[in-house]
Each structure stands twice: as C-alpha cells, then as structure tokens.
Fold these 3 entries.
Entry 1:
Amino acid sequence: MFDGIQFASIGEFLSMGGYAFNVWSVYLLFFLFLLVNLLGPLRRRKKLMKELQRRTVLTERQRAAANE
C-alpha cells in the first residue's frame, strides 16, 4: 500500500523536497475555498429566511391595519 511513498521521514514529507510553501499554501487555499463554498450559502439562506420572516410580519401588520 505504501510502496510508492518516497519520503524517509515525516520532516522530509513536511518539507516536500523544498517546495513546502507552495504545496501547503495550495492545500490551504483549497480548504479555504471549500469552507467558503460550504458556509457561504448557509449564511445567505439564514439571512434570506430572516428577511422573509420580517416581510411576512410587516405584511400581516399592514393587512391588520387595513382591516380595522
């Protein structure tokens, strides 16, 4: 299973043959991208639901005032 691993130690793995900054920064950007794309729509949905609830309350108040 691990026959293709070319690193002799964890330190060598983390340094990525001298390209650690490039490799790990790409991983970081990828996970940030995933996080934004997962949490962004959830935040927008929550904000939209609050706005719809606010509009519903206002509409009901306007109807009640018009019926008086």
Entry 2:
Amino acid sequence: MTKAFHRPVVRIVGLLALALLLVAGIQRTSQAVPPTQDVNVANTPSVHVLSLPAAPVSTPFQANAIASFVPGSNGAFASIPVPSGKRLVIEDVSVLAALNNGTALTYTSVATLAQGGGSEVEHYLVTNRQGSVPDVADYFTANHPLRAYAVGSIAVRAFRTDTLGFGQVNVTVTGTLVDAS
C-alpha cells in the first residue's frame, strides 16, 4: 500500500473507534442512573404559625371608598372597614377627585383610630389640580406615602369650595393587616 492511501484509512478507522467508545460510554451512563423510587416519611411534625407582637404575621390590604358630593352640600364622606381583630398599617393613600367645573377641593383627609377606644387622628392629604374638561369636571389627585395605624374603620372626608352640583372623591388605601392584640 502507498503512504497516500494509508493515511486516510488510518484516520477513518480512528474516527470509527472514537465513535464506538462514545456510544459505549453513553450506554453505560444511562444504565448507571438508578430508577426513581417512592419515599415514605414517618413522624412528620405539625407546624403552627404564631403571630407574636414582636413579629406579627401580616397580610396585604388594599381598599377604596368613594365619597360623593350632592347638590347643596360642600362635604362628602365615606369609610373603609378594617377587618375585626386586625390592625391596618397604612402605607399609602391615593386620591382622585372629579368636581363641577370651577369647583376646588378645600381639603381631603383620612381619619384613623390606632386602637379600640383611642382618640381619632386625622391625616390631611395635599391634593393637586390636574386639569379640566369643559362641561364635564375639574380633576384633582393626591398620593401620599404614609405610616398610620387603623382599627375598626378609616373615615374618608372631603370638602369643596361650593355646594353646586355633584362630584366625587375616590380614596384608595394600601398597607398590611396585623393582629390587633
């Protein structure tokens, strides 16, 4: 045989041998993995979640209320209930108001009780005029990060500059609920 013929044959034989080794290795690897088996666990402990004052279990909370103005009144009122046995930790309050053209908000507030039988505290919200749609409404908004506490319910209060026509104030409260004890 000539050298020119010998080199390609050796290369082909070498590649075939390498391919056979790889196939044999893959077969051995797939045979080495044991099949899955069921596992039984005995004496499983029960788990109890305690809510201690130092580390209360909290639940996300969000709710809104619409306080409506009626003709002849400059005040609108609503409330947001807090579930019984819980204290709401308020983290944010937002407001969107729509009033008759030419009317402005005097003020908007949320009032809370930190504990049953305690004194009410009023939190005033700074509203900003957003614009007007002629023959429809003037719009106002507010958004306040806030750290306040509430049990029972949150009182929503809004007042406007006149008593003409209708209007409404939508107040949204977000935060977390914790045990009130």
Entry 3:
Amino acid sequence: MITEGGDNLSGADNQQGRPARGLTPDYLAGFVDGEGCFSVSIRPHPTVRAGWLVGPCFQVYQHQANVGILEEIMAFFGCGRIASKGPNSSVMTYSVYRRTDLESVIIPFFDAHPLLSQKHRDFLKFRDVVLAMSRKEHGTGEGFRRIVEVAFSMNQRGKQRRYQLTDILPEPSETARRAPAQLELVKIQSEPRGDVGRTAEMTVPPPSLSVGG
C-alpha cells in the first residue's frame, strides 16, 4: 500500500496521546524526535558509470496498526508518501524524498520547531546537504566531496551503510580522516524506502573531475 500526501486534516481521534483536534506543531516535533529520521543515502547511479545518487530523505515510522498518525503527519505537511517498510514488514513509513518539498516544507518546519534530542544535530547536517544541492554545489568535484563527507558524519558515522567512504571518495580529505571521533551518534538507514519510481536527485562525476553547475 502506498498513500500520497494531500490536504491538511482538521480533526483526528486521540490516538497515542495526540491532541483531539489534530496535530499541533509542538506535538509533531516531539513525535519526530522519538520516531523520525533524517538520512542521506548514497549509492551508485543505475545508468551512469562512476556516478553516485545522493538522496536526502525525511522519514517517520509506525506499526501498521498506528498508520493513522502517519496519515495525519502527511496531511499536516501536505507532501510525501506512506508505504510499507518492506514486503513482509508490519512497519509503515512516511517518507519525503522530493528535494523541493524538503527545502520548502520540512526544513522550514524544523527550523521553526527545533528537535530536542541528538537528532537536531543530524537535522542541521541534513539541511546543509539539501541546501548545498539546491545551490548546485554537487556540480563540482569539491562540492560533491563535501556533501559526501557531511553525509558520512551523520548517523553513527555511516555504520549501517552499504558503501564505505573510501568506495565513494578514494582519497577522503584530511578533515574526514582525522575527525571520526567527533561525529555524532544517531540511527541511519542506507537506502530508505519511499517514493517509488522517483527520478535521481543528483548524478555526479568521479571525485577527481569538476563540471559546471
């Protein structure tokens, strides 16, 4: 099952202690603090040799019995999709991949309603990546390198990533080599699920090359 974002809800039941008249910004920020994730996946582009896809994504998880809260969150933001985490999973995931939605909806919301946990630090790095991509900084080898290093500094230093930093950047910068102990610890997923059939956000040249943006 996949559900797409629509109009905002004006009311809701009082499941999981949420306000009876729908979500409030403070409630939503607190809920995301516990159940949400900001991630930046990096994987090979399927059609371009030596290219990589960088995919920032905002997600919130719930058991399928509580999918109603995800539907309310999707209605609150007015974007994103809800889908099962996997073919045999009982977990449902609300995901926002589209960069324009991240930039115009998700980032402004969490700027105005900051998270209280360590996820706030991950959010700041996530925002850095999204805004750098919007400025087309990924169009140069150096800009791509910086985006990748920021992504790998998130979420347990990429502990659960399929690809290592050296797979993507054969020669990481001196900063990346010397500062691993300073990177924050938060949960990561390497290839979050969400929008099916979405187009690639970014295709990059080999790190040694630069292209116009």
